Structures
1.
Amino acid sequence: MTTTLAKPSEPVLEDARGLKCPLPALRTRRALLRLDVGASLTVLADDPMATIDIPHLVFELGDELVETAQEGAFLRFVIRRRGAGPASGKGDQTPAIAADHGPVGMSLPTKTGGPEG
């Protein structure tokens, strides 16, 4: 459950074993955002949801999932920092979440038609 900082040429380790969803993905995101472009992050997690959440996060941030492996009771992800989001090209600028309103700037569907009541 710790982040081990290393020299720029060495991969950084994020040990998220023992943490449950969404914490492994959140800690991975925080560790990725601290890395220089080209640096590598190794994530260890034992939460089954990490198999979905971490690759999704990597895609959203525009980074590269180099390797995914099952090692005994835990998963190992190796991620290379690219620093550019896939669609926007703006990198780490993911929408903020406003309480009870969804992502900031996102229009939520409104009830239209039919009787009010």
Note: The chain has a mean pLDDT of 77.
2.
Amino acid sequence: MSDDVLDAYRSSIDNIDAALIHMLAERFKVTQAVGRYKAQAGLPPADPSREERQIARLRHLAEEARLDRILGEVPALHHRRSHPPPRTAARRSLAFSLTSPTEVKLAKAREKS
């Protein structure tokens, strides 16, 4: 049995999903270009204060949109996976100060690797 209304909703969801994936892919291309530029310009690869501001901004945007705040952290989580900080005691203690369960799981997984 076909339900035209449900099919239309699902088609819209599929289109939105595709747009989100393409937008994230474009964002990741730009962040990779930033990394290359920083390397060529002799700039440090990480800017912890910028990352903190971005995470706060994205969390706020997610909350304003009535989304789980972890969704606002997706770009930052990708950055952390792509550019992990060096292993230090401070990094290990950071795992216990992270606010989201996903971040804690990622930090613990990195510690094991």
Note: The chain is about 75% helix and 0% strand.
